[in-house]
Design a protein that fits this description.
It comes from Sphingobacterium detergens. One of its GO terms (molecular function) is phosphoglycolate phosphatase activity. This is Phosphonatase-like hydrolase. Keywords: Hydrolase. The chain is of the alpha/beta class. The protein folds into two domains: 6-17 and 93-242, HAD superfamily/HAD-like (Rossmann fold); 21-91, DNA polymerase, domain 1, CATH 1.10.150. α6 links the parallel β2 and β3 (154-157). It has ten helices and six strands; from the N terminus they run βαααααβαβαβαβαβα. Strands 3-2-1-4-5-6 form a six-stranded parallel β-sheet, with helices on both faces.
Length: 244
């Protein structure tokens, strides 16, 4: 049986508390730039690259061949970026209860921790800094400190790859940054359909959905997964069972 050597976690809705703030920022940008879309539709795209969300909405609204398509996409996206960055600068970010215990368990058992996110790099850096999770990360967002004085081993964002979720590219990049070549040594945890789809496409050993984030059991149970958990610390028992 494979031993887990890398644990990959989504950010908002999985490790970082999200009370629909990201969805609210999307909705504000959508209304401000004269789009019309339901909150259910927005929620279905959570976890995607944020620029892809607006490309998809405007494609459905006017078609990508429209002469103002790219301008409209950028207008909505830039509005969203501003209010999202302002939100995290002003209010900061908090981890879900038990997340730091999970990270400590991983460190204590020589399991590397990678964070992946549909956020772009600038806002991810704001969040990591507010949490203090950027400690020890170099300019490539990899921790090279062997003393254990760090929270995570690497950070990967949607703007670091060509294709964000549901593509497996962020998982592949996290593996590369952490020196892991075998996907069967990886466990993936996220709260959105795109998190589970990317884990499945990456062929990870264990693909886990978090039910305390943006999607419920009914929404996630139809996606490819191995486990669904109701709180972060449940991932510890899953890893312990795999690594027996």
């Amino acid at each position: 049986m494979s031993k887990i050597k890398l644990a990959i976690f989504d950010m908002a809705g999985t490790t970082v508390q999200d009370n629909r703030e990201v969805e609210k920022c999307f909705y504000e940008a959508i209304v401000a730039t004269n789009l019309s879309i339901s909150s259910e539709k927005i929620n279905s795209m959570m976890g995607w690259s944020k620029i892809l969300v607006f490309e998809t909405i405007w494609k459905e609204e006017i078609g990508e061949s429209h002469p103002y398509y790219q301008n409209k996409v950028q207008e909505s996206y830039q509005y969203f970026c501003k209010i999202l960055e302002d939100h995290y600068r002003a209010r900061g970010a908090k981890p879900y209860e038990g997340v730091l215990d999970v990270f400590e368990f991983c460190r204590s058992n020589d399991i590397k921790v990678a964070l992946t996110t549909g956020f772009y790099r600038k806002v991810t850096d704001i969040i990591l800094n507010k949490l203090g999770w950027d400690n020890g990360l170099n300019s490539d967002y990899v921790n090279l400190d062997k003393t254990g004085n760090h929270i995570i081993n690497c950070s990967v964002t949607s703007s670091d790859v060509i294709n964000g979720r549901p593509s497996p590219e962020m998982i592949h990049l996290a593996m590369q940054k952490c020196g892991i070549s075998d996907s069967k040594e990886v466990i993936n945890l996220g709260d959105t359909p795109s998190d589970l789809q990317s884990g499945y496409s990456a062929n990870v050993y264990c693909n886990v959905g978090s039910l305390y984030g943006s999607h419920n059991q009914q929404e996630l149970s139809v996606l490819p997964h191995d486990k669904l958990i109701k709180e972060p610390k449940e991932i510890i028992e899953i890893i312990q069972h795999i690594n027996l």
